[in-house]
Amino acid sequence: MVFHKLTSLHLVSLRFLNEGLARLLFLGCPLLENLVLERCVYDNIKVLDIYATKLKTLTIENLELDDAGSDGLRQTVLKIFAPNLVSFSYIGPVARDYILQDPVCIVNVYIHLVKGFEKGSLKGLGYLMCKLIGGFYNVQVMKLSIIFLELLFYILSEPVCFPAPFCNLKHLKIYAGADKRHLQVIVHLLKNSPNLKALHVDFVTSGWIHWKGKWQPEDEAVACLAYHLQTVEISNFEGHDNGLEFIKFLLKNGLVLEKVTVIWSMKPEKPIEIIIKALTIMTFPRASQTVEIIFLEPKPLDCFD
Fold first, then answer.
1. What's the pLDDT tens digit per position in 59-116?
2. Residue 48 forms beta bridges with which residues?
3. Domain with 178 in it
4. Which of 23, 136, 188, 208 has the fewest C-beta atoms lying within 10 Å of its C-beta?
C-alpha cells in the first residue's frame, strides 16, 4: 500500500488493527507533509509508530471518541520520527509514553490534555509531561492546557523539570486556574523562557478544579520580564485575589512591558465590583513607565483556540 504523491492525510474514527499496518501506512506515504488523526481507535496497539521524514504538521485529536470502548492513546506509546516536523498538536488523554526522535525543527506546539489519569501516579505523569515538553527546545509558539499545569506541578521542585530553557520561545498561551499551584508553574515557565515577548493567560473555570491557597510571588529574577516581555493578555478574569496578585507581579517586574490587556469573565459581575477591581489594578506599581493597561468586555467562550 503505497501513495507516492500523497502530501496530506486526515483520518477520522479509523480503528488501527495492529502496529504493523499502522507503520506501513505511514511508510507508504513518502511525501506526506500534513497528518491529522482525529478520534481514531488504538485499542490493540502498544506503540503507534509514525515514521514520516517529510512530515511538517501533525495533529492527534481524541477529545470526542465515537467508540465507547476506546480511551485514545492512554494504553499506547506515541513514537514519532519526523525530522522536518514544524508543528505538533496533541489533544486528548495522556498517552502511555511519548518518544519524539530528533524534534529539532518543531517551532509550534499545542498540548491540550483531558482528564482521565485517575489510576496513574500524578508525579509519574508529571515526569512524563516534563519529558514531552523538554523535547521542544526550539519551540517559538506554545499553548498549554490547565491539566498540563496540574501534572507539571507535582515535579516542579525536581531538577529534571525543564533541564534546558526554551530560549527561542516568543509567544506562550496558557489555560490556568487561579490556584496558587498553577501560578507557580506559570512563573516557572517564565523563568525558563528568557526571550519571551508575549504572554496570554486564560483563567479557566472548571467544576473539577478546587482553588487552593493564596499565591505570593517569590523575590527572584525572571529574565523575560526584565528584558523582553512586551505584551500580556489576561482573559476570562474574575477579579480573584490570586489573579490580582499575578497582574501586580507582572507590572512590578516587567521593565519593558508595553501593554497589559485585561478581559473580564463572561460570569456576571456587579458593575461597581468591576470598577473597584480595575481601579485597584491601576494603582499597582509599574516598572515600565510606558506600559498601557487596557480593560475589555468579555469575549465569547472559545475553548483552546
1. 999 886 544 446 788 889 999 999 999 999 999 999 999 999 989 999 999 999 987 6
2. 78
3. 165-304
4. 208
* pLDDT, tens only, 142-152: 999 999 998 99
pTM: 0.91
93 and 194 inside one domain = no
DSSP H helices, the chain, are 19-27, 122-134, 146-153, 180-191, 223-227, 241-253, 271-282
pLDDT tens figures, 227-280:
999 999 999 998 889 999 999 999 999 999 999 999 998 765 567 788 889 999
Could you give the dihedral angle defined by the CA atoms of residues 107, 130, 166 and 92, in that order, rounded to the nearest 10 degrees? 30
Q: What is the DSSP letter of 208?
A: T
List, in order, residues 6 or more apart from 305 with CB less than 8 Å away.
none
DSSP state, 94? P
Are both 193 and 125 inside the same structural domain? no
